[in-house]
């Protein structure tokens, strides 16, 4: 059975020692030690040491000795140790938890130092801000300090080469792992006890040399690129001081070599850390360009420094560098990698600029850098090189379609048919990184060959121009001789040739004809160089010959006057310093800047000219100022500058003036005179400058005055005039005029005339538009006493208007201007009398317009002016179209009224229609209400008529006939209703039409009940005929019953009659007879009622086609009743006449006695 614990231990050992499992070999003793360690709880340590064996099998097998103690270890051997953390028996399950695996490398001190420095101190003591590392809380406070002291002691011992405190081994640099370690090594050496005074002094010199950068070397990763660059430059002096330090023996080369290497490594790691922290592949190139460039610069610069020191500076002197110059390989490779990244990003950035956004998305250009994002591109080592090459190859594959598109864009931009080679080359410089890509170069082969041909032709043209040189074709150059201008022309041609040479060694270099054109280019450049040299020699000979000629003005006459009056130029002041000498100074500077060596004689003349050049320039300026003084001073300001002008001129015209005595040779006198003249000129120039400045300021203010309306911006006119007056006063005060009233009078008069011109123009403009731009006059259109009026009234508006006109017309009469010529303004109204007449004419026209406007609004108020008549017209409306036309008219008028602006401006008058529109709107509203009320009333009336008719008709149709007569009447009534139905329908439709119209403007009436009744009426009317037929049959079937009932009624009547009929008059008294007569009338009425029923019955029988009904006793009863009726009727007549006579007097009766008879 395999012991998994042994397998675990062996696997740990082989893994740490890097021994393949098949090459691992152990001894029997080792197996015993392993078993003892695994099974014996008291054995806490197991150590494995690889034994170096010699022999034929030593290469095939690697022996490892295991022991339960640490006594067999020696420095530098391959060692692994395993420690138990408890006495718990080791099992397959807990072995990984209960043991610690470690190793010793080089020495125990080094191992504990690195473990402490890199593992335990960061974990226990270097907590993040605001917290502590896991496990740190378990340490007591003083233990942390002890750990730090222990680390510092180990580090110091490490730097000394693991020797005692007073022993230092300068040859052992294994403890120097960073630049700061070297600094502290010499500081420790200097401060050590018992090392000897000479050694301490020597170490102190080295420590002092390094002290200036000790603080900077402590933590390079925290520094920015500029700080790293500054540190590199500072290290130059430190290294030079350290190497050349006066110490015996001098600084060891072996330690210097190691110091340069550790410094290079520290700088490289700092650069790597900063560049790796950037999102170099996903950020825009503009964000990372400077960082990449600075990182590359630091790497290259440090190698330049070390090579310069070890190859040049330290190759001579007492302490020389032996062997090859030092150049750090790591920094060289890192710089190369940074340069590759920079080129890739630069090319990629140019490609992005060449392609439109749509193509970039389509080609997925943003994903091309994905291969580089899988590792840290700036971490250069032997293992990252293959990964870099693989990523680069994948990037190139992804860029193939992109490069094809870029080549097309470059072909269109760089190699157009109309482009010239110089322009193409200059544009090429913008895309030189992109054009260096092989695929793009190959895609542009035809275009590059054409450009190569054009460059050859360009070089031929340059050579041809050089061969047929024509002085007339030279470029103009003010103050330069022909030789100097030719030199500039040659330099221009040389710049073209140099520009053509760049692509010949760049992106055109691989073309077949590039060598030939390059040779031609070299030839042209050589010819230009020769022509340049010949031109310089010609200039040199010419200048030297001029200097040798005594009368040539180029040679300064030292004993001659500095300045004199030129009679040929009307007494103009001139300086005796030659213009040719000034030209010589300029040309000498020009040729010297071009790299030409100026001969000593010419240089001496130039220096002599330069010696007095500043005086000549100043005096030349003074001459120009003097000669143009008359034109520089404004005529209107001459009196104000008169005092300073006279003082300046006296320096040249006064016989006692020193101008005639001043010579070039007398330098002190020349300087004094120049200063005096310059100061006087400066005072006069200052006065003139202030006057000019004041004049310019006043001019600007006056120009602004021209843009201010005198009519509409009168206050601004006054304010601007006050500013002008203030500016003039300030100028006059600043110039220090002794009598400002008189000296400034011409200047003020000048500006008064200018202001008069501006004011007159503004005055005329104001008169022309006076009626439009006077202060606004406002009025409202209102209704007063049933009349349309203006408020305020038209007469008041007219008065205010003419008042404003007169105010503006009289404005110049009180205007004084700047008090330079105040009288000129009073003539302005007379000069513009015609325009004033036009103003009053326009005023009359204005008020005519206002009156017409007022009249034009009168029709809008007709409703309010005749309200009774309008109401009568509303009441007379009958048809819906009458209301519809009125509602439409109101709507149209409202829209028309909305188009009327709230204010109507007629020139300066603003007529407000707000009040008028509110009145009209109120009238419209009242009219609309009247129309709505009338329409609603009309709808209700018509609906009520229809409703009343329908209710009556339904009531009639609801009656159930009990006889044929009643049925006939009902049928007749139904026929009449049927005839009336269309008319009723028309009435109802008319009411509905009006109601629909009403609903469009207000809430309508509810005609639902009327329509419901009308529908019921129609249904009942339609069903009446069938009802009548049914009733007819029903009545016919009841005729026998009716006849029988009628006989019964007759019998009952006869019985009552026979039993209760009145007695005769013979058997009763008069009163009784009267009662009987009255009773008889009642019997007669009852009989008539019964007889009507009988007649109805007889009629119904006749209508139904039946035989007349057989009614017993009817005739006998009727005959007896009639007889009795006749008797009692006569008695009734007699008694009535008798009572009438009895109520009259005798006198009334006597004339009519015949009545009694």
Automatic annotation (TrEMBL):
Keyword DNA repair included in the entry's annotation: no
InterPro entries: DHC, Dynein_heavy_tail
Coiled coil: 1014-1041
Pfam families: DHC_N1 (PF08385)
Any one GO CC term of the record: axonemal dynein complex
Protein origin, superkingdom: Eukaryota
Keywords: Coiled coil
Domain (Dynein heavy chain tail) ranges: 202-653
GO MF annotation list: dynein intermediate chain binding; dynein light intermediate chain binding
Any single GO BP term: microtubule-based movement
Record protein name field: Dynein heavy chain tail domain-containing protein
Organism, as annotated: Zooxanthella nutricula
Lineage of origin: Eukaryota, Sar, Alveolata, Dinophyceae, Peridiniales
